[in-house]
């Protein structure tokens, strides 16, 4: 008989039928004449209770199995006598696929998230990480559905690149050179001419510039891929490798961009409510338990999200944001000063304390932002926007792009960047230029927001951070 998932069994409740389930043991308990095991196969949050008695062949060995062992159970589905589950299995046979040993790290007792990060290969078997990563899956599906339904084309931008598209100098080099014997030019610089690509290459920090090329031909596109940043930030919201979704749209201004960003964020939340309510419940229970342990007040993030999915996102300019921060009377580590990029503490104050919900900040000083953003009439600010949310801060960064060839050249010069590698990007402004806009949503930051998890390392399968590239 073929295997059925626990998800299907719990949905269909085929009482009276014979079924086969393969799964891992979450708990096992022996009484006098029979035993129970609770199984989870990862198909859903739910578990299946399997009852087997002394007469079952191999009872001795099976009843001694430890938590984490893997089995295939065959038996009849019956109405459950106990509380907490609707159906259970009366097993006639249990095959052992893989035993485990006493030192299996995931025991019943509560373990810390820090410990589980060191067990990243095993944490997918926990209730909590099952919930987080099923939500991650649904948010990916929601992304394709949202943009697909709106007529956007899905674009795979390159991962290897020769341009620093954000101009921030935070790129990982890619080379096949012999690192023990780097050849230098006469002036003492690394000679990349003999390297694999014949020039310096890196991992992309964004797919935006390539997405712009396609928006200027196909109208509306979005990327969804990994991006890499070699910034030395050891924080709960920075990863060296993270996933980004970048829509780019021709003939759209900053207004439309902000609207798209709010609609997309709200769609992600609604989709998770629709497709992963049990997972949200698990997370809500987890956070409640944590708050109790830490003697903190519990604020159910799920209840808050529920309201956000139908709310209007507040809008303010950067200049007004600085004003609010300066007059707040709040003690900040970094003083909010016009001209300086907002810090996480500022972003969180605005969204958590001041607006108590998501807020879109626009029109930042040009010196805080990348070269490609459209300059405002004032000559000082650019048509940038960041979406800030409670608990995380910035989850989206975007802008209207500078479509004017001369102004773009001027910005590149001002910033001391090289024009040559950007020749193709500049040609978009030379041949049939048009207003266009886009943004990037940090996938893991958005997942942090939806799951309420406090550390970005807990919402990506295998985190890469400074000094950490295990698994
Ligand atoms: O604000 P950023 O740097 O914007 C861009 O990369 C633009 N090219 C996007 C665009 O307009 N198409 O990054 C976008 C988002 C941030 O808002 C943040 O959510 C996330 O990417 N992000 C990171 N997430 C995790 N770890 C990091 N180190 C991140 N850096 C940025
Ligand atoms: Mg940003």
Descriptive account of the structure:
- The chain has 471 residues and is of the alpha+beta class.
- Helices cover 31% and strands 24% of the residues.
- The chain is built from 13 helices and 16 strands.
- The protein has helices at residues 6-12, 59-63, 113-118, 127-149, 208-218, 254-275, 277-293, 301-308, 318-326, 344-354, 405-414, 423-430, 443-451; strands at 18-30, 34-40, 48-53, 70-79, 87-98, 153-155, 160-161, 173-174, 201-203, 220-228, 241-250, 314-317, 359-365, 381-389, 393-400, 436-442.
- Strands 6-10-11-16-15-14-13-12 form an eight-stranded mixed β-sheet, sandwiched between helices.
- Helix 4 crosses helix 6 (254-275), helix 4 crosses helix 7 and helix 4 (127-149) packs across helix 13 (443-451).
- The structure holds 4-amino-1,4-dioxobutan-2-aminium adenosine-5'-monophosphate and magnesium ion (MG).
- Magnesium ion is lined by residues 386, 394, 397.
Concise summary:
The protein is an alpha+beta fold. The chain is 31% helix and 24% strand. The chain has an 8-stranded mixed β-sheet, sandwiched between helices. Strands 1-2-3-5-4 form a 5-stranded mixed β-barrel.
User: Which strand-content bin applies to the residues?
Assistant: 15-25%
Uncertain spans, ≥5 residues at pLDDT below 50?
none
Distance between the termini: 35 Å
**H/E element string?**
HEEEHEEHHEEEEHEEHHHEHHEEEHHEH
User: What molecules are bound to this protein?
Assistant: 4-amino-1,4-dioxobutan-2-aminium adenosine-5'-monophosphate, magnesium ion
Count of DSSP E strands?
16
Morphology: elongated
Quickly count the helices.
Answer: 13
What integer is the average pLDDT? 96
| Structural class by helix and strand composition | alpha+beta
- Radius of gyration, whole Å: 27 Å
Query: What is the oligomeric state here?
Result: single chain
Sheet bearing the most strands, described?
Answer: 8 strands, mixed
Question: In percent, how helical is the residue content?
Answer: 25-40%
Strand order of the largest sheet: 6-10-11-16-15-14-13-12
């Amino acid at each position: 008989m073929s295997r059925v998932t626990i998800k299907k069994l719990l949905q269909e409740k085929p009482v009276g039928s014979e079924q086969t389930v393969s799964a891992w043991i979450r708990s096992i308990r022996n009484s006098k004449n029979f035993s129970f095991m609770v199984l989870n196969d990862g198909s859903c949050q739910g578990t299946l209770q399997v009852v087997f008695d002394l007469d079952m062949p191999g009872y001795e060995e099976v009843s001694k199995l430890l938590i984490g062992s893997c089995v295939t159970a065959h038996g009849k589905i019956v109405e459950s006598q106990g509380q907490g589950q609707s159906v259970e299995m009366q097993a006639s046979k249990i095959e052992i696929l893989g035993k485990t040993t006493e030192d299996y790290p995931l025991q019943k007792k509560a373990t810390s998230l820090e410990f589980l990060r060191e067990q990243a290969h095993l944490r997918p078997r926990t209730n909590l990480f099952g919930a987080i990563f099923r939500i991650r899956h649904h948010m990916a599906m929601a992304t394709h559905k949202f943009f697909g339904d709106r007529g956007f084309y899905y674009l795979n931008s390159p991962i290897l690149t020769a341009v620093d598209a954000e101009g921030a100098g935070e790129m990982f080099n890619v080379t096949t050179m012999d690192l023990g014997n780097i050849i230098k030019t006469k002036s003492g610089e690394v000679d990349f001419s003999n390297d694999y690509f014949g020039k310096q290459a890196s991992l992309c920090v964004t797919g935006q510039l390539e997405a712009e090329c396609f928006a200027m031909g196909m109208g509306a596109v979005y990327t969804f891929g990994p991006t890499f940043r070699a910034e030395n930030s050891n924080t709960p919201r920075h990863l060296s490798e993270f996933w980004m979704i970048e829509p780019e749209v021709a003939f759209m201004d900053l207004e439309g961009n902000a609207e798209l960003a709010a609609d997309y964020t709200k769609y992600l939340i609604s989709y998770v409510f629709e497709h992963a309510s049990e997972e949200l419940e698990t997370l809500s229970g987890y956070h409640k338990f944590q708050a109790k342990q830490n003697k903190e007040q519990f604020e159910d993030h799920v209840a808050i999200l529920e309201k956000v999915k139908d709310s209007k996102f507040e809008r303010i300019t950067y200049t007004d944001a600085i004003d609010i921060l300066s007059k707040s009377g709040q003690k900040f580590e970094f003083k909010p000063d016009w001209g300086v990029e907002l810090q996480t503490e500022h972003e969180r104050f605005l969204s958590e304390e001041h607006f108590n919900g998501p807020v879109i900040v626009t029109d930042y000083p040009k010196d805080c932002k990348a070269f490609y953003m459209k300059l405002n009439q004032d000559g000082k600010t650019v048509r940038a926007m960041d979406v800030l949310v409670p608990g995380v801060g910035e989850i989206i960064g975007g802008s209207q792009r500078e479509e004017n060839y001369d102004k773009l050249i001027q910005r590149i010069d001002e910033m001391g960047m090289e024009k040559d590698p950007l020749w193709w990007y500049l040609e978009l402004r030379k041949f049939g230029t048009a207003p266009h806009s886009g943004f990037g949503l940090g996938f893991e930051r958005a997942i942090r927001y939806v799951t309420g998890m406090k550390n970005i390392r807990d919402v990506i399968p295998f985190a890469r951070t400074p000094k950490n590239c295990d698994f």
